[in-house]
Design goal:
This protein is mainly β. It has a single domain, classed as Glucose Permease (Domain IIA), CATH 2.70.70.10. The protein contains one helix and 15 strands. Strands 1, 4, 7, 8, 9, 10, 11, 12, 13, 14 and 15 form an eleven-stranded mixed sheet that branches. Strands 2-3 form a two-stranded antiparallel ribbon. A two-stranded antiparallel sheet has the order 5-6. A hairpin with a 2-residue loop joins strand 10 and strand 11. The longest helix is centred in the C-terminal third of the chain and has 5 residues. The radius of gyration is 16 Å and the shape is globular.
């Protein structure tokens, strides 16, 4: 197993209803993970440079498509492995996990499906696993929505936010105002809200939260489209 380090030390409105994946391609008997870099090795917003100690999460090296027939599937190789995937990406100077949950496959990509824009990516695992903070930040929302079900929104600084939806339950510390480090548990993957199966709907958002629309006025981006964190090359 090749490791480099995978946590970070300094630092829909549209309803989401993912079909149950048909296949679950695997990178091998034990998915490889990145190890965490040493303190001070990575970028983060100055707002959260003194975030709490990081959690246990170590991102998987690769991500596979659950079902090669999905309409918004990103480019893959013949084994279903997503091409040009990076487990850590840079969003406006903030290093973030591209898929903040372990041993999953992609059950829906970002983009149009069924005539509607899917504003995030869906990540499926069997059995369901814990969900982690993608970067250091402050909890802004912990709520139950009709579409998203149990959802958490985190502010990461530099106008960057992340959303985690359809959780089965929240971790005890998940209250607005709580500051998290990279890779801290937020709750368990579930199917609350408008979801046909257990999965995580994950969004990376940018913009100004301080408007009447709050998080619903932010702009959603494809987590797979951001540039890779260059520190991965240094640690490989």
């Amino acid at each position: 197993m090749r490791c480099v380090y995978g946590g970070l030390a300094t630092f829909l409105l549209a309803a989401c209803a993912s079909p149950a994946p048909v296949t679950y391609p695997s990178p091998g008997s034990a998915p490889s993970v990145y190890e965490r870099p040493a303190a001070g090795d990575i970028q983060t917003s100055d707002l959260f440079r003194e975030a709490p100690p990081q959690g246990p999460f170590q991102p998987n090296v690769n991500l596979f498509a659950c079902d090669m027939r999905m309409s918004n599937r990103p480019g893959t190789n013949g084994s279903g492995m997503i091409l040009n995937y990076s487990p850590l990406v840079v969003v406006s100077g903030v290093v973030m996990a591209t898929a903040p949950v372990n041993d999953v496959c992609l059950s829906s990509g970002f983009g149009y499906r069924g005539g509607r824009l899917h504003k995030g990516i869906d990540l499926f695992a069997r059995p369901a696993g814990p969900i982690y903070s993608a970067a250091p930040g402050r909890i802004l929302e912990v709520s139950k929505q009709s579409g998203f079900g149990n959802q958490v929104l985190i502010e990461h600084g530099n106008g960057v936010y992340s959303r985690y939806a359809h959780l089965a339950s929240f971790a005890p510390a998940m209250v607005p105002g709580h500051v998290v480090g990279f890779g801290e548990p937020l709750g368990m993957m579930g199917r609350s809200g408008n979801a046909t199966g257990i999965h995580l709907h994950y969004e990376i958002l940018t913009g100004n939260y301080n408007t009447p629309q709050k998080s619903w006025g932010l702009t959603a981006h494809n987590p797979l489209d951001f540039p890779a964190w260059e520190g991965l090359d240094d640690l490989s």
